[in-house]
Design a protein that fits this description.
alpha+beta; 18% strand; 6-stranded antiparallel sheet; Arc Repressor Mutant, subunit A; Jelly Rolls; globular
Length: 286
């Protein structure tokens, strides 16, 4: 699936970048890219985050900086009765907001280094996200020079955080012209759309991307760094965990709703990923 180009959003007249809160019942799978750099902080909601060729689960506190042109999506679990909404603060800007002459100045060298590292995407820890939560929220209301100064200070603090880690692999090339990447993106879209189906089989996804099952299995492992089965189970367990925490539905009903054909397999996979049974997990939220 070719990533969709997302045109630039209109900016408030008093500033040269945008910062806004995104609030939706769920964030749909929308594989896209744009020239702006993007800082995204998830304040509510959980699901899967795909950046380049890296697939990870996300939850509240997820904080990521993406370089321009890097394909990505946050795909939420389905809307849940008690959740209310999925929320994110998103900041988009172009690197020329901090000119080449500016980032060579001593005060801005750290930001320049941050930009150099963020081309593959950078994920920050939950602790860093918690420390910056107020600053990110306030940035959505700031205007004019005050907004620019707040953004510069925020980026400077993130640049000095020692535990940021890259997301997309070194081998990843964000180019719509690469057939393997298009095939991988198509597979991800099919999996995301049918993860809750008990009848989702590797052979079906392989057929959708015109590979034999054996070839697709090797291809997916190489591109994603995890097996097809492990990726599907991670998606399903994430959705099940959310339902356990925020609904009164029976454990067996949740297992079947999230694509597990039998309760024993669901319990086993849930323990593998969460370190406890589904009932014990739910008890933390009662």
């Amino acid at each position: 699936m070719k990533p969709r180009f997302e045109p630039r959003r209109s900016h408030p007249s008093a500033q040269s970048f945008i910062a806004f809160e995104r609030v939706e019942p769920a964030f749909p799978f929308a594989w896209h890219y744009h020239p702006e750099w993007e800082l995204t902080w998830i304040s509510a909601g959980s699901g899967s985050r795909i950046v380049g060729d890296t697939i990870e689960a996300y939850e509240p506190g997820d904080l990521v900086l993406l370089g321009g042109g890097l394909p990505h999506t946050w795909s939420s679990e389905k809307p849940i009765r008690r959740t209310g909404a999925h929320r994110a603060v998103i900041v988009q800007f172009t690197p020329d907001l901090f000119t080449p002459a500016l980032i060579t100045r001593p005060e801005f060298i750290a930001i320049g280094d941050l930009f150099a590292r963020a081309g593959r995407g950078l994920a920050f820890t939950a602790e860093t996200a918690s420390n910056e939560a107020a600053a990110l929220t306030e940035l959505t209301e700031a205007r004019g020079l005050d907004a620019w100064c707040r953004l510069a200070s925020l980026l400077d603090r993130l640049a000095r955080t020692p535990d940021a880690r890259p997301l997309a692999s070194k081998r990843y090339t964000p180019s719509a012209g690469h057939g393997a990447q298009r095939r991988f993106e198509r597979a991800l879209a099919v999996i995301d759309a049918h993860a809750d189906d008990d009848g989702l089989y590797l052979s079906q996804v392989a057929q959708a991307v015109h590979l034999t099952p054996a070839a697709f299995s090797r291809f997916f492992q190489r591109m994603a760094g995890v097996s097809f089965v492990d990726h599907v189970n991670t998606l399903r367990i994430g959705r099940a965990a959310r339902l356990l925490a925020e609904s009164d539905r029976a454990v067996s009903e949740i297992a079947f709703a999230c694509g597990f054909g039998n309760l024993a397999n669901f319990n086993r996979r849930f323990r593998e990923q969460k370190g406890m049974s589904p009932r014990a997990f739910r008890a933390h939220y009662v």
